[in-house]
């Protein structure tokens, strides 16, 4: 099962670039740099460094919500919020092979993301989570199974996902597990190779 690490430097127990590199070394395939509060210059520098750090392990770096920064930094893709401009508009600007991921919370968003040309959807929260208590309806494994059956693109399960729950997510059709905390705690990212 693939792994999708979403960064949060404030919760990282060590240097964020070291954490990104360690996760890539352990087999994480996608790293979403999600440092929303950084200015453009700092974000650009961080993404460039992250791309360099993951190169030996062929992990792919996506930038949260900033196509301009992703392109300028040589990142492998961009990750869009569910209410972003259409993926098709981004696709016209992006080079061939550039990944476009989309955050989704309901089946209609997953279907729309695929129809517009997204490469993957991050769907959730699948389980209750401490980071967003009570903000969104929790679809659970049944909801995950439903959306995975509706599309051909990979779906990453997010929200309350742990290594212990990863096999249930896979059985429901998820191609990946996504998260922040499970990848920032020492030794917990697992090895999917």
Q: Note the gap between the termini.
A: 9 Å
Tell me the fraction of residues in β-strands, as a range: 15-25%
Number of alpha- plus pi-helical segments: 8
Low-confidence stretches: 188-193
Mean pLDDT: 92
Largest sheet: 8 strands, parallel, barrel
What is the 3D shape?
A: globular
Provide the spatial order of strands within the biggest beta sheet: 1-2-3-4-5-6-7-8
Rg result: 15 Å
What structural class do the secondary elements suggest? alpha/beta
The total count of strands amounts to: 8
Helix content: 25-40%
Order of helices and strands: EHEHEHEHEHEHEHEH
Give a topology summary.
Layout: E1 2-6, H1 16-25, E2 30-33, H2 40-54, E3 60-64, H3 67-73, E4 77-80, H4 87-93, E5 99-104, H5 107-115, E6 120-123, H6 140-150, E7 155-158, H7 163-171, E8 176-179, H8 181-184
Helix pairs in contact: 1-2, 2-3
Structure description:
There is one protein chain. The protein is of the alpha/beta class. 37% of the residues lie in helices and 19% in strands. It contains eight helices and eight strands. It has helices spanning 16-25, 40-54, 67-73, 87-93, 107-115, 140-150, 163-171, 181-184; strands at residues 2-6, 30-33, 60-64, 77-80, 99-104, 120-123, 155-158, 176-179. It has an eight-stranded parallel barrel with strand order 1-2-3-4-5-6-7-8, surrounded by seven helices. Strand 3 (60-64), helix 3 and strand 4 form a beta-alpha-beta unit. Helix 1 packs parallel to helix 2 (40-54) and helix 2 crosses helix 3. The model is unreliable at 188-193 (pLDDT under 50).
